[in-house]
Amino acid sequence: MQSFSVILSILGLGLLHVAIGALDPDGVPYPDDPSVLNQQAGIAILKNYEHKKRTDYIFRQNLSPTAKLADKIVAQIKKTEDITIWNRYANSNNPKFPGQNFASARSTIGTTDLFKVVKRLPKGSLLHAHLTAMLPYGIIFQTILNTPGMVISAATDLASDANKNNTSINFAHSNTTVTAAAASIWTTSYIPNTPVLVTEAADAFPGGRVAFLAFLKDRVTLGIDDAEQSELGVDAIWKKFQGIFGTVGTAWSYEPLVRSFLQDLFGSLADDGVQWVEIRNGGNNGVVKTGDSVASPDPDYWYNLFQDEVTKFKATRKGRNFWGTRIIWTVSRGRERARIISDMKNALNFKAKYPDLISGYDLVSQEDLGRSLSDLTPELLWFQQQAGARNLTIPYFFHAGETLGDGNSTDDNIISAVKFGTRRIGHGFSLFKHPTLMDIYKEENVAVEVCLISNEALRLNDNVLQHPLPALIANGVYTALSNDDPAIEGQDDAGLSYDFYEAIQGFENIGLAGLGNLAQNSVLFSNFEDQNSYKWYTDIEEGANGSGIKADHVREWNKDWEKFCKWVVSEFGAKYNATA
Amino acid sequence: MQARIKNINAWPSTMPDEEWEEVATGIPTTEEPFIKQYVSGREALIAQEQKQRSDFAFRQSLSPIAQKACRIVSKIRDHEAATIWNSGLEDILAQKIGANVYPGMMFSLAKERMESTALWKIMKKMPKGALLHAHMDAMVDFDYLFGVLLETKGMHIYCNSALDTDIAREGAPVKFRFQVKDRVDGASIWSPEYIPDTPILLTQAADAFPKGGRQGFIAWLKDRCTITNTESIEHHHGVDAVWRKFSSCFGILNTIMFYEPIFRLFMRRMLKQLLDDGVKWVDLRLAFVFRYYKEGTDEPEDTFHEIFRVFGEEIENFKKSEEGKGFWGARMIWTGLRLLDTRKMVEDMDACISVKLAYPHLISGFDLVGQEDAGKPLKAVLPELFWFKKQCAQEGVNIPFFFHAGECLGDGSDTDQNLFDAVLLGTRRIGHGFSLYKHPLLIDMIKEKKILVESCPISNEVLRLCASIMSHPLPALLARGVSCSLCNDDPAILGQDTSGMTHDFWQCLQGWENLGLAGLGSLAENSVRWAAFEDESNSEWMQNIKDATLGSGVRAEKMKEWSIEWEQFCLWIVTEFDDDE
Ligand SMILES: [Zn+2]
Ligand SMILES: [Zn+2]
């Protein structure tokens, strides 16, 4: 901080004593008067000094001339579209404005040039996403409808709107002929839990198949209404959110469907420029083999199937540049000790069996209402001991600080997480209120997986402008953008483009270069292979200069980034009239 | 984040009992040394972080009674969070506005319920020191003000168009003024025949209001002058939309309150409510874009000297009165409008200097107001500001800056960057500083230069910078060691509906575990420490703030007075609320 005090003394209050020169007819100094220029120069120095602390400072310093130009062009695109698309400065109650909530802005976003740019940007890795909430449900329900033998059932009849909105709905595969139901699931005479052919239920739905698919999708997504009722609060939206996973879990349980979903999922990630994905998923993966109707008793079946599909995808044209995927094992944090321990044992067994596939361990579901990491201390220390004893590398990637609180137990999770040696944290929404911790996260190279749209959909912020991401970047904390549950939370696309768009549209201080840095960070903080903490740490420090898989991928990403910047210049340079 | 609910039973992971028993013996208890070590490491980290807080020193020096009071209040807070602020989260309730009750819910939805809590009773009684950021025209509750308006002889209503339809009544620039002679003829202002700009005797017009006569009239006028409950929860319409309404309120109010008899009553009401709320000093802000009328005249004053004469007189009268006993006083931060052109802005600055020369003890500083996002950034008015500084120096007056800055969302936008200018221009305090938490370097400078942030949590929420107290960034500033105080900004318009600050204090206490009563005490103490009691040079200002209670001037004296009140207050909590500790 030496140079800081120097700056202070240069700038100090002394500035005000700079002599004022000639005055205009009103007796006011001209805008180019030394006193005015001096003040402006002072601000430029300060801003520059502040930027040195940013996480993306070095990345910006090293931009190639092409990348610098691309950055300028994109800033111009944003400025232009702020006015032409988002009506900045328009003095009326216009429905569109900068900082509009994502849910209602989404359809407009897709039409912008800025989105075209972002769509094409090489995104590196997706580090935080939950398996059953990644692939859009439009595709999922359509596939179910097209798959023979799929049945639907509900815990009550689905005649009334209230039941339609609240009853738990399940999908399954039936290997026997399902006789036409005695009563339609949409009438009060439906007998609860009776399986009905999905095709039959769809045709009987008021409005037919199209309306049926729309109804199902609406049931399992958070919409504009939810976004615009933030006054109902976080717990209320979580109730709705949690309820969704039951239904969609059953959609992900029949082998041909799972295989098809995985191909679709990897394909759409690749389409979006995502090359690596770490998927969070619970360990209890029963799967119903093709043609069966009960889950296979073989606990390995799902894991083999998953690995199979990854290999298959990498062999396709689309999958050529796909680096791959690993799974972060998750368990619900609401469980009591015995069940957590039992789950941990499973995780360790599967880790031993599938070392390349299983990447780490995490706890999920609403932090505010579940057990805190501090409360889980014995279990978590036990797990580390066991893993050490069995020579298994299965580090923590905790959800932490996904909360509005300041000093409550959820907020404290960000302290516990770093003490447990977490390699990244999911969300870290409350981290910006903790200066000491931010320093520790920086020093120990712990990255934050930031999920802008997810936090908005779950009511931590009303719109992207209120998100604390800029504070983390300004403090030099490593961050990467993730999409969490894009099928539920409104992105309706497995890729990262909407989250990237929100970041660049929201914050002048990020810009294209800032986005590039966020994408590069995601590669830097990917858990490509088992590493001890020392190797993990040094690989991050060395980045593209290191050796090994990570360095290779960073270099590959750097190349893609240059290519992308070139594309931006040739595609938009003339239109937005920017020159170097 | 995700919750997994699976109903597939063919899952082989359930540990057999005998195995579990074996495993269970291997799980460390919380008494194990390495767990204890982990836990103590964790505590040390928290302690290290607490040391950086701006309220650390204050907390360290709490008396035993104050410590006990803090514990009691935190217990009450937890208890009320679990009882009063818990609707049980029935599915149906959870999706209905107002029915879902939870800690940290939006201010306008929580207001009524909060006023019935024990926490409210405590906050109400708390000695709050000084109110450092409040716009005078938005200080007095409208029930009172409109009552006075209707009772004041000779008040008339007029408008540049007929107020005959709902749409006209919603947006037309309605105005009021005193007339020596009552004007009772002419077509009703509520009819299409109304001749634009004709003053109509207010009592007559109010009684003839088409939707419910006089009562309907008052309700309508309130709607025009406040951010309504509906508006305050419709956050998705964004900041600019709510500011359009907000700005329009002032236009109406400025034609009501600057007629001398009304103004005097306004002052008395405001000062009394402040003192009743435990506020002993107020640094008001006011934009001088209105006309002031002496009692019995319908010709406006040419200058603002007269209003300042009355302003000073009312303050002194109040201090001398029985109900004003113990009140320290008030001063005015002159505010220009940031969107004025150079000439108008300079004329306004000139008027400020001229009043300062006449009433040096009443003018404490200068500021610019109006929506930051929509007006000129500070960097665009540097020539005017430098002129002002030079002019002050020539006239031998000291009018420091107390800028609004960073009352915005966004990061790196012009408005956000006003923070840089404010600091470099030597501002003594910053109004709002909402976006400051994103600027680590500026934070360090602000600490070094002893600049205080006047934080206005309810104002920021209602004007849509954050959805609730829970997402306000003040905790981040406190954690960094920035000195802050709590303020209410525009309580009559924004919904607090009283001059006092209890609502803002209550919201912070309930919102943040890390604050607690001790944190609030520190914020109140700061407000005294940074109040502009008297003219001070830059170095005196700095020194007196550094010296705090150890100094020798007014500031030190007031701070000592405040800490005595604080101790009495803590004692009161302990006697009143200690049940079983
Ligand atoms: Zn998550
Ligand atoms: Zn203000």
UniProtKB/TrEMBL annotation, chain A:
Its main location: secreted. Gene3D superfamilies: Metal-dependent hydrolases. Residues 255-533 form the Adenosine deaminase domain. It catalyses: adenosine + H2O + H(+) = inosine + NH4(+). One of its GO terms (biological process) is inosine biosynthetic process. Keywords: Hydrolase, Metal-binding, Secreted, Signal. GO terms for cellular component: extracellular region. Its cofactor is Zn(2+). It is an enzyme of class 3 (hydrolase). Residues 1-21 form the signal peptide. InterPro entries: A_deaminase_dom, Ado/ade_deaminase, Metal_Hydrolase. One of its GO terms (molecular function) is metal ion binding. Its EC number is 3.5.4.4. It comes from the Eukaryota. It is found in: Secreted. It holds the Pfam family A_deaminase. The keyword Repeat does not apply. Belongs to the metallo-dependent hydrolases superfamily. Adenosine and AMP deaminases family. ADGF subfamily. This is adenosine deaminase.
TrEMBL record, chain B:
Keywords: Hydrolase, Metal-binding, Secreted, Signal. This is adenosine deaminase. It catalyses: adenosine + H2O + H(+) = inosine + NH4(+). Its cofactor is Zn(2+). One of its GO terms (molecular function) is adenosine deaminase activity. One of its GO terms (cellular component) is extracellular region. Its EC number is 3.5.4.4. It comes from the Eukaryota. One of its GO terms (biological process) is inosine biosynthetic process. Coiled coil: none annotated. The keyword Signal applies. The keyword Secreted applies. Belongs to the metallo-dependent hydrolases superfamily. Adenosine and AMP deaminases family. ADGF subfamily. Residues 240-546 form the Adenosine deaminase domain. It is found in: Secreted.
